[in-house]
Amino acid sequence: MLDLPSDAAKSLIAQGEKCGYVTFEAVNAALPPNLNTSSQIAEFLALLHKMGIDVVDQVTPRNVDFTLKAEAEWAALQARGCAFLGTDMAIMGGAMSWVSERHLVAAISNAGGFGVIACGSMTPALLEAEIAATQAMTQKPFGVNLITMHPQLDDLIRACLAAKVGHIVLAGGIPPGPALRAVKDGGAKLIAFAPALVLAKRLQKSGVDALVIEGSEAGGHIGPVSLTVLAQEILPHIRDIPVFVAGGLGRGEAILGYLEMGAAGAQLGTRFAASAESIAHANFKNAFIRANARDAIPSIQLDERFPVIPVRGLVNEGTKKFLAHQAETIQKFQAGELDKTAAQLSIEHFWAGALRRAVIDGDVEGGSVMAGQSVGMVTGIQSVAEILAELTSQAVAALVARAERR
């Protein structure tokens, strides 16, 4: 099996991923003399082919033309989303509690994407401070994600508007009419989540400026339907406002496919959570690097009488103890030791503070390690800029390869 023998070979692969091709001369130069044999060259060429990188005799105007056209097409596909967000790339950062704060949000925006602060349970005063701190770190646009069930939602909206936040995301339910009007009347653009076509149409009619359709592949709180199905259900029918896709996205080729279906852009969370700029504990990031897609599963409900909100995260000792806690609580209910309300509260309170323990304290065994199924594509700690550049190079390479097959 061929190991990458030199930095030159690794650099050549990076160049090939960006452009979609390399020259045969460059392949020879990248392999050291002791490995520059027919068999080693053949093995390296096979590796390049497997990665979708073409090997050409020489760089011709045709090669360059393909790349330039691919870059232009990639930019054109994102144009609507970029215009709406005011960014260079139509990539939103998913709002992740304890993770999507000033450092990560500013890093995403500074790199050309669109960072989003996760307000979560913040008070209006805390949110004001977080917005101000983020504005001190970037001059680029960013948004704020508010939970519709927050008891101080109106005050949070006022805090966003007073700080001149241009985009407000209302998540966790259908935006209440007064909140929707407050955002619109305050001059901000309103983004909402649509878990089904009927709701997407309703939200569009109500005046929402853009939608996010998030599949069950996502991390954290999830719905029951995959992005693959949601995109087919919604994208052909919602054309008047931008629609951003989310859930399980980790590579540029996948984003490209959804853009070609009609999406205006994409939202990513898991890859950014493990980025260099993320404040998440090293244990949290390393858990992502070790994990496979199958390790990120939704929370399991044992008894329909005691609903469990589906949350996707990595399997650990905490998830195993949660199952045991549910079983014990149900037994107590059946024995008459707990009434139904007390039993439900006991189940709901199990994870209290668990996300913070994982993200901030690094307790990745007992805490809640929320992660999407794209966690299997997190193979190392990269900067946000590197992640965005990689997504672009993957999409452009796919477009170049397609053009060369015609």
The CA-CA distance between the termini, in Å, is 33 Å
Taken in chain order, the helices and strands follow as HEHHEHEHEHEHEHEHEEHEHEHHEEHHHH
Assigned CATH class of the largest domain? Alpha Beta
Number of domains: 3
The parts where pLDDT drops under 50 for at least 5 residues are none
What would you say this structure looks like, in words?
By secondary structure, this protein is of the alpha/beta class. The chain has three domains: 7-59, no CATH class; 77-280 and 382-398, TIM Barrel; 292-370, no CATH class. Helix content is 48%, strand content 13%. The strands form three sheets. It has an eight-stranded parallel beta sheet with strand order 3-11-10-8-7-6-5-4. Helix 6 links the parallel strand 4 and strand 5 (142-147). Helix 1 crosses helix 17.
List the helices and strands and how they pair.
Blueprint: H1 7-19, E1 21-23, H2 24-30, H3 38-50, E2 54-56, H4 61-85, E3 91-93, H5 102-110, E4 115-118, H6 124-135, E5 142-147, H7 153-162, E6 167-171, H8 177-185, E7 189-193, H9 197-206, E8 210-214, E9 220-221, H10 227-234, E10 243-246, H11 252-261, E11 265-268, H12 270-273, H13 282-290, E12 296-298, E13 311-314, H14 317-334, H15 340-348, H16 354-359, H17 384-405
Parallel strand pairs: 1-2, 3-11, 4-5, 5-6, 6-7, 7-8, 8-10, 10-11
Antiparallel strand pairs: 9-13, 12-13
Helix pairs in contact: 1-2, 1-17, 4-17, 5-6, 6-7, 7-8, 11-17, 14-15
